User: Fold these one by one.
Assistant:
Number 1:
Amino acid sequence: MTSVNWEKVKDYEEIIFERSDKIAKITMNRPERRNAFTPTTVEEMIDAFTICRDDSTIGVIILTGAGDLAFSSGGDQGVRGNGGYVGKDKVARLNVLDLQHLIRIIPKPVIAMVKGWSVGGGNILQLVCDLTIAADNAKFGQTGPKVGSFDAGYGSGYLARVIGHKRAKEVWFLNHFYSAEEAYQMNWINKVVPLADVESVTLDWCNEILEKSPTALRFIKAAMNADTDGLAGIQQLGGDATMLFYQTDEGKEGRDAFNEKRKPDFDKYPKFP
Ligand code: S0N
């Protein structure tokens, strides 16, 4: 069994943010509400993911929920106002959409580690993670049409790409809950393991990923997302290519020539087939 000592990175109210060497773990921490998220929970996750994105020593991120009963039960219905979820500033918003986008563009693998309920907007968070490892007590489902809401973005379109249109419509039209084994059979998640082993197996996968080329992983993630995310996805893939180009002599020649007020000499660079 693989285990690590987690060290707290920063204090938050509604999440726990820890790391062990190159692995970061972000935990939604409202177990008494089955880890339902409020605007504060989401704001804090965005902050923690941004720290992970900017820290070049972090290579992989785990997203999970506190306790064994839930990954997340979605948006906290107790703070749902008329135009979104109402935060401490009394503004109604759906900032979870910004978090979904951040998880998609962060150029490092994000693994959802799911124990218990993965429901509504919480289930969409596990969906947008790159990989999902579930405990055998996990249950997956969308409740939107039952509670007067829907996610017509990744929660519908990307779900249809992942599990197929017929299955995605079944999930949204009937609002059934699916066991971890059923979700695995639907290609909704990557692996099912006994509850007691879920963190150990997740850490094993993180360590295997950390042995791989981070740039190769970055481009694979961006390329797969570009296929689904249109120009926004191509922007990420293009930005990654620019990052590499900046590091070449050819890229540096353009910058240096401008700064040195001379004509750039690009002729010496090969025109590969
Ligand atoms: C998760 C369920 C199935 C767990 O059942 P269980 O184990 O029997 O526990 P309960 O006794 O029901 O729950 C324990 C306590 O936790 C509270 N609670 C649970 N979920 C929530 C929640 N989502 N919000 C607030 N409180 C919650 C219970 O009330 C209970 O409290 P006490 O002890 O005081 O009674 C079951 O709890 C369940 O079905 N929960 C509701 C699931 C749900 O409908 N979630 C909301 C779905 N919608 C979203 O997530 C929308 C957000 C979103 O992401 C979005 C994104 C983009 C565009 C649109 C949307 C959108 O849809 O708005």
Number 2:
Amino acid sequence: MLSSLRAAAAVRPGHGREFRASPETGNLKPHARPGPNLTKCYGFQHHGPGKVAGLKHPCRLPDAGSLPSLSAMSIDRNAKIFVAGHRGMVGSAIYRELQRLGFTRLVVRTRVELELLDSAAVTQFYAAEQPEFVFIAAARVGGILANSQRPAEFIYENLQIQNHLIFGAHTAKVRKLLFLGSSCIYPKLAQQPIPESALLTGPLEPTNEWYAVAKIAGIKLCLALRRQYGDDFISSMPANLYGLNDNYDLQGSHVLPALIRKFHEAKVAGAPAVTCWGSGSPFREFLYADDLARACVFLMENYSADEIINIGCGEELTIKALAETVQRIVGYSGQIVWDTTKPDGTPRKLLDVSRLFALGWRPQVNMESGLRLAYADFLKNPGCR
Ligand code: NDP
């Protein structure tokens, strides 16, 4: 089957209406689904050697009461699927994954073709296209700087985009919808690893509360439609992401793409040192965007429940270890200087992924390979986005 997939022509996500797409060649191996019994520490199904120092993965068993409900449904490869935000990092990864799996009727729109802030346009779009499945990967997204400089746009635009897409999907009788939130919806001082039950149990991290409040409203809208109308709308919360087609604009980017760009530019300029914010001691979890995409399609086919579900790799590393790894992969030989006058943020942010792993899903791309792929992609168009 894989050879026929490889032989098939690839269709890139881009402009236009409905795509009759053939599966794209993928370097990633199809992963085995080990089934719902989780009896070991979890970790990656690594491809190749993983050389990242300082990775930790906690050992945890889900208790029987917390096991999520399975709703196995193999989606017809001819079903009409709308990927909102297909030109972003996550949306393009979901699009690639759907192509790879052989879905033939993928519907996408650029922002010029469909402004998601325009309620009437979204309603009209749904009425015309009538997709059966919807992945919502469109949002106003950014790091701490962007969030703190533009709080009004972060809360307003995200509420508008998701309201139009989610309620529009209800009106258009979409069969199933997946809404993507973020790990920042959880309280700043949530227990670690963060279980889904931590939602709304404490104050949010102030720097991104605007974005988080909007995302929480999206989760609740999906739940309300589920409760009142029986809509099969689910919400999942990814860890920090990185991958192809990331945002490397230092004004708006997250920590990992910002590090790639900073080390690359320092290498090119022959700069003696790169300054990084904080002490480097906080722990963070990072998931490769194509792994997230696989998880999203997996959940669309296998998960149906009121509860939100976390998506992560179950491993964490310090920002210092991350910076040193990016430095090595980029090939920068200067010094790293830690500016400890800058805030560290929360000391640890690791999602509890035991519910997702209990369903049998596992990530496939380790940090070393993922970073190499992301840097190679950055090099194709440095400074893009
Ligand atoms: P990107 O910024 O890469 O992509 C966002 C997409 O949304 C873009 O395609 C953008 O279009 C589209 N979009 C934004 N506003 C509008 C609008 N008004 N009308 C039409 N399209 C619009 O974000 P990511 O891919 O990183 O994130 C996608 C989702 O994943 C978000 O919900 C985010 O919360 C979630 N997520 C991301 C994480 C990360 O680390 N990146 C971590 C956890 C969750 P255009 O290309 O025209 O700008």
